[in-house]
Sequence to fold (200 residues):
Amino acid sequence: MDEIPWFEYEEDALDVAQRAFVDVLAERAGSWLVDPLDTVVLPSAQAFDGQLIAYLDIGDPRRNYGVLTVGVHFDGSVIRGGKFHNQDLTVQQATSEFTFDAVGCPAELGNKAAEWFEGVLARPLVRYEWHHKGRMYAVRYEYADTGRGLSEGFEDSLAPDALRTRLAADGVIRGRGRINRAGLGRPDGIADVRGVRPDQ
Fold:
């Protein structure tokens, strides 16, 4: 069975500069603790802005859940990276801690992008869980070094009745989705997803 390469692409879909950029990324990605299927190249002909896009989906393998998508747009001599919107792959301006820009030749930019991806992957990502009757009703992913939340979810039907009543009275919940974890009290569990927490 053939091994799936990181940042896989069809050779005729990329020009020489794009191949040089992606080849450096792919070589560096071989040492990352990510599944090759989580690394994606979108040729410039398929991108909304006409630039090559290379991105990485960072997930929680224990829950098979996507937490964060980060990537770069490459135009041949400039890269712009950051947290991506998970549907249109645009760089999200509001998440400035992830934004990244660089200028250079394709191979140099491939190395700079790889260093940036490696920095994101090294951050201590944790999962907070709240349980009731053996089932998880709330989850929040955040960086342990900053407390910055990345993704969260709340399942109203699984939460304790008293909590649902209190949160509904406060106008906080509407079935599923986002919720301020401060209203949930202490989590029932904290799991390391990636990296190492500063307190360990």
